[in-house]
Specification:
- The structure is a single chain.
- The protein has about 90 residues and is mostly helical.
- The protein is about 45% helix and about 0% strand.
Length: about 90
């Protein structure tokens, strides 16, 4: 049987994001990888975003492509809101 402290430690370790593996990629490499996961994205559209935003999006795509299960964890960065709303222009 797993002790409570061991279980809490595993949960805490999973909740802390690892350094982004995409942080060592060039902007072009990040865009190429995004296109591998999302071929419907347009290069012109992706080029309008900052390197940080592109890296964050790629990290999310990689996490979403992983099999679901106990170890599948996506930790939303603090600078991005959980819910976003927009008004349509009339």
């Amino acid at each position: 049987m797993v002790s409570l402290s061991a279980r809490a430690k595993r949960v805490r370790e999973r909740a802390e994001p690892d350094p982004s593996p995409t942080s060592r990629l060039t902007r072009e490499q990040v865009i190429d990888r995004i296109l591998q996961f999302n071929p419907s994205a347009k290069i012109e559209f992706l080029e309008t975003f900052s390197e940080s935003s592109l890296s964050h999006y790629l990290d999310h795509l990689v996490a979403a492509a992983a099999p679901r299960g106990r170890d599948a964890v996506w930790v939303r960065r603090g600078e991005s809101p959980a819910i976003v709303g927009r008004w349509a222009r009339s």
